[in-house]
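Morning!

This is the sequence you dropped in the shared folder:
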Amino acid sequence: MSINLIKSVNFGSGNKSLLTVGYRLINSDGEISGSRIDSGIGELYSSTGIYSASIHFSSDFKGTILWDTGGSSPQFAADEYNSVEEQISFIKAIEGGRWKIDSGTNEMIFYDDGNSAEVARFDLKDSNGDASSTEVFERVRK
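The structure's back. Tokens below.
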């Protein structure tokens, strides 16, 4: 299963109204995946220097979107992307496994669906933003 996602990059107003913006995908091994794309990219709002494009990702792609302004002295920006399967696996682990609150550290710990491997850890806070395990108002991923 492949996916198309709208992704954006902010090069700042000093790079407004460029017609040379492009991107390429680089996998997690550092290999370039395909050629540089410079079509289908538009400025999000006039004179902002923020550009966006609908980017096609294969189902197993993990890596970086390397944006550039083009021209003779391009500026670069990078945005990480993890495969859809990896994101779904994380959601399944969070939803399907056990969780526990550690009152000593004021943390909530999530485990995979096998209930043994830790998947994520969150700081727990009360309504004042102070660490708490008894009057939890908010959790913040570590």
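Headline: The chain has two domains: 3-82, 86-141.

More detail when I'm at my desk.
O.
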